[in-house]
Amino acid sequence: MAPRYGTIDFEYAGRLANCPPDEDGPVLMVNYMKYRERAEYRDGSDEGRTGKEADDAYAPTEVLADIGAVVAFFGDVIDDTASTGWDRIGIVQYASRRSFIEMQSRQDFREKHRHKEAGMHHTIVFGVPPHLVTGDPGRTARVVFDLVRTEGPTAATADGQVAGPVEGTIMGDGRPWTELRVTWLADGEPPPQLDDVADRERVVATPSIDRLATLVTT
Fold it and tell me: Mind giving me the DSSP string for 9-73?
């Protein structure tokens, strides 16, 4: 069944599934999440859960561990004017692109996935090749993620900001994206100013898991 919370890009899915072994390798899959107020399961019930609680029930940590994937980042979005309407952000580092696609057919993953489908209102899931991240342990109170679409040359990043190209969007609303920018902030430090881009989805999150600086390499 097709998911109710986004549109699959089958061209990118095919690139992931058929990536030649000598060109494959680690990839970050980034997930912007917006939840339903109440979960909506296929049988019409909410099983007594909010959308967020349904996503908590999904949490396929055992499946990820079995295929060698690692949760690189997980955080709740701060309710402030800088963010653009999202609830959470999660990033998983997979050992290969093929392993991400192969996971979708596992029975244990499918059994958990019903909770994600029930809880999610809409989402953007996109791949970013691993790139060097130099995090500052003193700047981890909040993390800003700017998913942008640029036209022409890529704009210069702000001080303390790391940027990586978006290689494809496996699920979303059809908008194309070109770059993910990440900025670690200290207490009281303002997010980077908004620059002129064709489109943007910004998330400002308080991390409960942040392994990006230690997991991500060139």
Answer: -HHHHHHHHT--TTT---EEEEEEEEE-SB---TTS--TT-BHHHHHHHH--HHHHHHTT-EEEE
Q: Which phi and psi angles does 122 have, rounded to 5°?
A: -160, 160
> Nearest Cα to 149, choosing from 217, 79, 201, 83?
201
Q: Is-contact 50 37, C-beta < 8 A? A: yes
Q: Which tens digit of pLDDT belongs to each residue from 83-137?
A: 889 999 999 999 999 999 999 999 999 999 999 999 999 999 999 988 645 455 5
